Input
Amino acid sequence: MLESLLNEVWVQLIVVIMGGLLIGLEIKGYRVHHDSSNEHELGSVRTFSFIALISYIFAKIDIYMYIIGYLAILSHFALFYYFKLKNTRSGILLFLLGTLVYSFGMIVVKFNIWFLIVVFVAIVFISNINKKLEHFYTIFDEHEIETFSKLLLLSAVILPLLPQGNISEYIPVSFFKVWLAVVVVSMFSYVGYVLKKYIFKDKGYLLTGILGGIYSSTATTIVLAKKASSNNTPHLFASSIIMATGFMYIRLLGITYAFNFEIASRLLVPFVALALLTIGIGYFMYKRATVELMTDLDNVEDKNPLELSTAFLFSFLFIAMAILTHFVVTNYGNMGLNVLSFIVGFTDIDPFVLSILSSKFNVTIESASMAIMIAVGSNNILKAFYAYIFSKNRAGVLSGLALLFLGVLTMGIAFI
Output
């Protein structure tokens, strides 16, 4: 037993000292490449090795001894920092690293060696991330930090605080489900937005259609139809518009799986088949394009989908759709729901689809699935009109006819 304890101590001691030594070498490498002046710096490679050794010895002796040791090193850090400030140098990175190295001893005593290795890897990774961040800053819009903060606000802050009981007898959905719908739709839209704006920045029209289907197929149809009105590449724009609808099926299927597995399972085969058919038609149109692909989309605005005003508007529409659907189902049954689905398809279908998925209406899985497909079909018909009205040329005719066919086909499948 004593031999086992001694072996454990030796392993811990070696790992701690090696950790301090490697951090010291990392700092020395940084000085060689970035800092020609070594005045008033915090020691050498040996200094960090000794800090690690002291931290382990003091942690093994007593917690109070460990605290006293830290206060002593901290006062030493303060003295060095005073001289740095006198030389108009204010960086504290080395002091932070010294403090982290001093924690190595307590980490292996209180936790284990693997935790120390994880901490060490994190230190090395963060220390070398500066170059990557400099490149990141050149391509990343500073307002995206605010955008990402909104996503965290919508999901991690607001969502857990909302009650999960139904809002009222006439609104068969909870505030939690309403906001969850906002979060899920925002996530899908945000992924499309980021892919479109940053990952595929030099994008062609076909790729814009594909990513637009994840973002918003209706908005993408309008934008591309307007662009097609002043271009001589009808097959190219028609293929892009059709591709947006193809990926809209995939997007809606993903949202459906997030809320209702049974309905999603029923929609899986028809939606995947319709998506493949639509993408196939779009690809056929793309192959017919005879003019070289253009990648200049400066006139297409990548609008941030995480505006809080949009989120509140969506939640209001969600509740309104839940109330309307509840009224229609209660008074007119499945036939009324089908008629409502067709009418809703000529607006934004996301709130309606999510109200069907999240609310407990007195309808069967089959009726709910049919209502969603009818709404999607009529929405395709709406996009067919948009494609023609905003382009008024052959691109609008080609894409409009295809979307009209897909709309009728989708609704036809719903009744099978």
